[in-house]
Design a protein that fits this description.
Elements (H helix, E strand, L loop, with lengths): L12 H31 L2 H26 L7 H17 L5 H23 L6 H19 L9 E2 L5 E2 L2 E2 L3 H23 L2 H8 L4 H6 L4 H27 L1 E2 L6 H15 L3 H26 L5 H16 L5 H17 L2 H6 L3 H6 L32 E10 L2 E11 L4 E5 L6 H8 L7 E6 L2 E2 L5 H7 L1 E3 L12 H8 L8 H5 L4 H18 L14 H13 L5 E5 L7 H16 L3 E5 L3 H5 L4 E6 L2 E6 L1 H6 L1 H8 L5
Amino acid sequence: MGEQSESLTPAKGKAGAGSLSLSWSKTVVVIVLLLIWVFAPWVLPAYYLTMANHIGMVALVALGLVLMTGVAGLTSFGQAAFVGLGAYVSAVLSTKFGLSPWFGLLAVIFMTLALAFALGAITLRLSGHYLPLGTIAWGLSLYFIFGNMEFLGGHTGLSSIPPIEIFGISFKSASSIYYLIWIVLFVAMLLTDNLLHSREGRAIRALKGGVVVAESMGVNTARSKMIVFLLAAVYAGISGWIYAHYQRFVNPSPFSLHIGIEYLFMAVLGGAAQVWGALLGAGVVTLLKEWLQDLLPRLMGASGNFESIVFGLFLVLLLQHSPKGLWPHAERLYRRIIAASRSASPESRSSGLDTRAAGVITRFPAGLGHSNWPVSTLPKRAHQLSADAGYLLRAQGVEKRFGGLIANQAISLELRQAEILALIGPNGAGKSTLFDLLTGVQTLDAGEIFFCGQAIHGQTARHIAKLGLCRSFQHVRLLPEMSVLENIALGAHLRGTQGPLRAALHLERLEERELMREAAEQARRVGLADVLHLPAGSLALGQQRTLEIARALAADPLALLLDEPAAGLRFGEKQQLADLLRALRADGIGVLLVEHDMAFVMGLADRVVVMEHGVVIAQGEPAKIQQDPRVIEAYLGVDLE
């Protein structure tokens, strides 16, 4: 709570008492859960203790799928194969070579990373339905390898696997290994939560918004995909290592494709984008499976895998009525209980604290209140042009064809520093295509593009964004479930350097604080200071378009390319946008904007470029453009003067 925004955190009086009551309620819940966890081996029957251990192991695998599938949007059916890899590697080293299980753990991590990197380098190039099909392919391959190699015991498996030992204490029984399983799980959940609330975590979450948007923000999407793929594989491998030395026997059956689908079901059921959803899903699926296996044969009067039918129907209903899983429902229930307990006291009723708003705030640097606004210390880009450049952005003879369609032909334009250049034309004129060419989203067929005197044609969108050329999109592309502050911070991705390991260990806190301060500074700059901690998807359209500009500004750009920023805005919102763009021009930023509102453009732009059918038909100052007969005929239709 110490890192929350001052503007939303009650500081004194009755509001402060309400906040203390809320914190105390959470503390009591945590203490109760901790006591239940500590004393569970002493009070649970052997059957349920075994179930608790199994839940802990499978939750570790489901946690990797939450990160990979729920957060990054990469569907995998093959995680059971990585569990098998971890189990077999350690089992072979222990039984065939007499090595310690702890040496086996190191070998499991190394082998899992090596194989996952090789598989990921191939599989992660796939998209759409080809990606899950690819995971099915290598998942089946590994499963059949486990069952057909005599060295691995074939389908009979390997037995007499030694138990894990620490300081002479052997973890043979369910009660003794219980703490090891759950400590490993909680550590993994903590590391995952740290990662997701960092610069690297925002990059991973940006994958769901689309590769084009993420790359335009400077995110190396291939690297981010590989990070989550490797981490999910390591979690599964460690789960397999524990399984092998707990059961002291392995065979291929627990590592089949069917079990891989079950792991994915756990992640989806619990809450595919929630760290704690992995534990909830693992618990619900495991317990339901056991109960249904006992109950359904009695009801049906025959034995069979009836629970699979029930699970299938349950999954269909869940996806229809609760696509985000069960965790959001559990979270809402918890908040209602806390709110009900607080409403019983006069202090909390008069505090006026909105518990819904408080629930959105997570890990934001201190001092984001309006009265004491922080100033980011991130290094700023030198907003100076080299003497031989004379312009920010220059395109010469740019052409782009899609088969027989010529989208852009011999396009030439220049954007100067501290200038607003408008690009106008009827629908289908090729304006958005030109934006994609200028920012590296698409490759041009002919011509040259220079930015600050440096050739950028043929460069990736990520490289161009790093140089200081940033953009917005014709249709708003935000991460709706992330806060306004986090969406803006994503734009500052390239200004950070801390990697995933330091993020998972929470060693990047100083840099993260500066990134968030930069995001808050840009929010204030564009007028979004009052909505910092709200989900971006809850904003009005005008605010969302402004948010896209703030996200681009967080990259400390030299030039902004804005694709229809005034589309769908009301008159007052357009006036605010115009004031913002004039302020950016005064700060030395060059702005190239595509817009259809001629009154907005002519009252704002320094120069105007007019396109029709993929070619430039006129360039010049607004007054000149309004009088050009070709422009009037092709687009305006009337003389605006």
